[in-house]
């Protein structure tokens, strides 16, 4: 599955975003991270092949999440579903 890495000066946390390429909230989340110079990886789920989509769904479910986007996973233990600045700031310590 194709993961895109966006560079940033702040690489303290391993950040992965599952997004939809046309989703406004997903775009806002990515922009927020860029604006705060956070390094992150993302996968546009709608552009993935079926097997990869299923793997992504299983990953989200295994962490107790719902299938909504964006889904932000920090350090493979903290999950934030949706664009919530305050939650992101707290989890990323910014």
What is the CATH T-level topology?
A: Glutaredoxin
Class in CATH?
Alpha Beta
**In DSSP terms, counting alpha (H) and pi (I) runs of 4 or more, how many helices?**
3
- Helix share, percent: 25-40%
Measured by DSSP, the beta-strand proportion falls in 15-25%
In what order do the strands lie side by side in the largest sheet? 1-3-2-4-5
* Separation of the first and last Cα atoms: 30 Å
Mean pLDDT: 97
Radius of gyration: 12 Å
CATH homologous superfamily designation: Glutaredoxin
Question: What number of structural domains do the residues give?
Answer: 1
Secondary-structure element order, N to C: EEHEHEEH
Task: Walk me through what this model shows.
The chain is an alpha+beta fold and 94 residues long. The chain has a single domain (4-92), classed as Glutaredoxin, CATH 3.40.30. The protein is 35% helix and 22% strand. The chain contains 3 helices and 5 strands, in the order E-E-H-E-H-E-E-H. It has a 5-stranded mixed β-sheet with strand order 1-3-2-4-5, with helices on one face. A hairpin with a 3-residue loop joins strand 4 and strand 5. The longest helix has 13 residues, at 50-62. The radius of gyration is 12 Å and the shape is globular. It starts with a strand and ends with a helix. The mean pLDDT is 97.
Give a concise summary:
With 94 residues, the chain is an alpha+beta fold. The chain has one domain (4-92): Glutaredoxin. Helices cover 35% and strands 22% of the residues.
């Amino acid at each position: 599955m194709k993961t895109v890495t966006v560079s940033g000066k702040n690489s303290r946390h391993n950040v992965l975003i599952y997004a939809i390429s046309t989703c406004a909230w997903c775009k806002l989340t990515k922009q927020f991270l860029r604006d705060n110079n956070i390094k992150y990886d993302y996968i546009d789920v709608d552009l993935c092949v079926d097997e990869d989509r299923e793997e992504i769904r299983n990953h989200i479910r295994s962490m107790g999440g719902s299938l909504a986007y964006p889904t932000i996973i920090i350090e493979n233990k903290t999950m934030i579903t949706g664009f919530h600045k305050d939650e992101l700031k707290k989890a990323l310590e910014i």
